[in-house]
Amino acid sequence: MTLILRREGLLSQTLLPWAPERTGDDAGDEAPPPTRPPVRRGSPLAALWLPLRLAWRQLRWEKARLASAIAGVMFACVLVFMQLGFRAALFDSATALLSAMRADIFLMHPMTLVSFKPETLPRVRASQAMALPEVQAAVPVYLAQATWRNPENGTRRAVQLVGFDTESGVMDFPGLAPLIDTLKRPDTIAFDLRSRPEFGDIGRLLRERGPLPVQVGNRMMEVAGLVEIGPSFGADGNIVMSELNFRRVVKERQVSAVDLVAIRLVPGADRDAAMARLRQLLPDDVMVLSQPQLVAHERNYWETATPIGFIFAFGSLMGLIVGMVIVYQILFSDIASHLREYATLKAMGYSNLYLGRVVLSAALLLAVLGFLPGFAISAVLYDVVGKGTFLPLGMETGRALGVFAMIFTMCALAGLLAMRKLRDANPADMF
Amino acid sequence: MDGSRVSRPPPPVQLRGVTYAFGSGALARPVLRDVELAVAPGEIVLLTGPSGSGKTTLLTLIGALRAMQQGSAQVLGQELAGASEAQRVALRRRIGFIFQQHNLLGFLSARQNVAMALELDRTTSEAERLERADAILAQVGLGDRGESRPDQLSGGQRQRVAVARALAGNPGLILADEPTAALDRQSGGEVVRLLRDLARQRGVPILLVTHDPRILDIADRIVAMEDGRIVPASQAEPVRAG
Ligand SMILES: Nc1ncnc2c1ncn2[C@@H]1O[C@H](COP(=O)(O)OP(=O)(O)OP(=O)(O)O)[C@@H](O)[C@H]1O
Ligand SMILES: [Mg+2]
């Protein structure tokens, strides 16, 4: 027997040098499995679908817990939507004036940080830009602030003045086109309908009484019509007028120093190419911007030079953390109170990985179930709050997708954290 | 010896010199000492012995629920000494477990619970799984209770669902630890007899730990344990008589 064993050992070693650990073990390995056919690989979809279904069945079983989990996710969802909504609304309103300026290309001094404190550039840059054949017209734009006396009660308030050659058709504002002829008259202005109510109910007065005399700075002007711009951080209200009328109000302003130059290209011209050529043509004291770039430049100031962006990012993060803690708590206590069941499944041959997928599926189900009502509530709140605060709050697809991604990540992280509790389910303790 | 090994399949369970201790170092408390045990194909073995003699520990080792320390354990052709976690998980799928408590998932119906034993085999379809679950539930006399949740069933019925779940995956071995402990005399007897009959039909061997003298008659062989050792057969015999 000793001889046989030794010879067997020798044989295995010579025959199977690559698998020495199998020595003496081959009897077991060669034995046919008692009843099962060899394992075939099934659909990989089932590996995701079955844990998901198990998670759903478990979630559904305890209605109260499911409801509180969904409420937690929903709460986080609404909080993040409101924070991001306010943030976007404030930035949108901060840039309302520039967003309302419609022209192909703008020239601005590179040191201008924000439109209500502009660095001026030489007026001659406008005529220099005309040298390019693509440029159909270029007009200087003057910006200034002056006091406005409310015609209803006489209170005074700072108003933003925008003066440019309104006849040239280079720059447009929503609502300006029908007023162009009227604005040629001396001392006429177009008032921003969306200015804050403290300026007086100009829209109603205009309808009732016709052209309306108001005091701007030290001069009496006449409101001849309405445009739509919206209040921004720098100004609660806006008025638009011709360059000539602007000079009548702001007498101290040098004509040669302009705040912006608006450019219109000939129809069909390539804007990006024209911008590149303008950059080559003009000296370093101008920055060539498209309208979106102009808005982005202004927005960048508010995002980086003020804590506004941080405040709302912080608020969103808090919402996500609170949501994550709630989801984690729910999933954790779910596992803790079902340790026996999880241990039983492990004893039946379910792997840690499979059970991990169950927990993660539960987390992602909660993400979806919490997001849908959270989205609906936020959309309603946007409407209600937007009307109450004059902020341009609106549900945007991009933001909705972004919030969903955040909620999804939040729940996934909570699931991954809760999964650690699965280790406590020890099948050896089951007997 | 060589020849006999080729012609006859190895026994479903073959333990050699299994020794196990809880704790480590100076605190190590030996619970199993040099256990030798074999279960033949289709054999029904009852394991008895005083409380604390190591029966449950032995069962968890055979069921690959615990890592081996010393000795060799061949279970369904898998050597457990030094087996990896993945190998142990794979082996568990081929063993049917019946616990003292039914341990059914409370949020699943009886047939869904039984089907859970089949979901690991991804080659089956949902319809096949439920069909097999219904068939085996009918065999344990619960054909009409497939949609009931565990909390709508009696203790004996729950344990019968657990039996159905253990058998559903066509296991090569059934391990049961005091499956009648939570049941009254009558339903306890019913459950183990049902288990015996179904296992006999399929030729599945059973290793069952029990303190219950009323069910000793289902056994082909009774093995007694004491203080971590298997008591020699000559000494174990009186247990059966008494
Ligand atoms: N997880 C553990 N940690 C430490 N010691 C343990 C553990 N499980 C069991 N023991 C000890 O090992 C010994 C054997 O326990 P085991 O559960 O195997 O006995 P048993 O024969 O099944 O007893 P019973 O008939 O009461 O179920 C006991 O002394 C017990 O205290
Ligand atoms: Mg025990």
TrEMBL record, chain A:
Domain of life of the organism encoding this protein: Bacteria
Region annotated Disordered, chain positions: 19-40
Occurrences of domain ABC3 transporter permease C-terminal (ranges): 314-427
Entry's localization field: Cell membrane
The protein's name in its UniProt record: FtsX-like permease family protein
Top-level taxonomy: Bacteria, Pseudomonadati, Pseudomonadota, Alphaproteobacteria, Acetobacterales
InterPro entries: ABC-4/HrtB_transporter, ABC3_permease_C, DevC, MacB_PCD
Keywords assigned: Cell membrane, Membrane, Transmembrane, Transmembrane helix, Transport
Boundaries of every MacB-like periplasmic core domain copy: 69-281
Residues passing through the membrane, by range: 66-86, 308-332, 353-380, 400-419
Automatic annotation (TrEMBL), chain B:
Domain of life of the source: Bacteria
A GO MF term: ATP binding
Keywords assigned by UniProt, alphabetized: ATP-binding, Nucleotide-binding, Transport
Domain ABC transporter: 13-241
Pfam families: ABC_tran
Listed GO CC annotations: plasma membrane
CDD domains according to UniProt: ABC_MJ0796_LolCDE_FtsE
InterPro entries the record matches: AAA+_ATPase, ABC_heterocyst_DevA, ABC_transporter-like_ATP-bd, ABC_transporter-like_CS, ABC_transpr_LolD-like, MacB-like_ATP-bd, P-loop_NTPase
Stated name of the protein: ATP-binding cassette domain-containing protein
